[in-house]
Structures are given as C-alpha cells and as structure tokens.
Design a protein that fits this description.
The protein is built from two helices and three strands; from the N terminus they run ααβββ. By secondary structure, it is an alpha+beta fold.
C-alpha cells in the first residue's frame, strides 16, 4: 500500500494538467463554437462581395442581396445553425453594416466585428474590386 502513493500522485497531476488545458483552450464546445463563427464570417464575406459587385454595377451602395446577372453570387442570408437572418444595414453614405449572432467574442475588438457581432464595410463605388 505504501508504494501506491506515486501512482495516485501522478494520476492527480495528470487530471490537474488535463483540467488546466481544457480551462485554457475552452475544450471541445469552444472549438465547435469557433467553427460555427468561422462559417458566419464566410457567409457575411460572401454577402459583402455580392453587395460590392452590385454597388459597382448600380453606381451606388445598396443592401438588397438579390443576385443580378452581372453579380450571380448566391450567398446564404441566414445563419445555418439558428436560422436567424443576417442583418444588412446601410450606413450612409457609402458603407454597409453586416451582423450575425456570433457565439464567441472577437479576438481583437476594433478589427473586424464588434462585440455586437457587426462589421462595417465602406464600399467605394467606381473602384475596381
């Protein structure tokens, strides 16, 4: 019995290291949330590309994500995980605000999306993409 304490000590140490690792990285649930947020980022990027293309064609910034012949992209307009529609808003005079219901906070606030899950993109009409 006296010689089993090293085994119990190593077991306890291993469990402590495992718990610390999960606490630091967030574990599998955090990884799944980050993956879903990357999908939302891609969706908003595709919407932005369509709106940029349409702005170049129309000569003005708009928020209608309906494809046209010159801009045939068909981005997903709703969150595939919650079915909530992505929000598209005009920020006068030449920007759009795209919002999604993210599960994680942005890594670097001030770059990209804000805490509310929105990003504002300026669209310069008449400039090649």
């Amino acid at each position: 019995m006296a010689r089993r304490w090293p085994i119990w000590g190593l077991t306890a140490l291993s469990l402590a290291v495992l718990a610390a690792g999960i606490a630091t990285t967030g574990g599998p649930a955090q990884g799944r949330a980050e993956k879903r947020d990357r999908t939302r980022d891609r969706d908003l990027s595709e919407i932005q590309s369509l709106l940029f293309c349409k702005a170049q064609q129309a000569g003005r910034v708009g928020t209608d994500p309906t494809p046209i012949e010159a801009c045939p992209m068909t981005p997903r307009l709703a969150d595939p995980f919650t079915s909530a529609p992505y929000r598209i808003e005009l920020v006068p005079p030449d920007s759009i605000r795209l919002c999604a219901g993210y599960e994680t906070q942005p890594d670097m606030p001030g770059q990209g999306r804000d805490e509310s899950g929105c990003t504002v993109q300026r669209i310069v009409v008449g400039q090649p993409g």
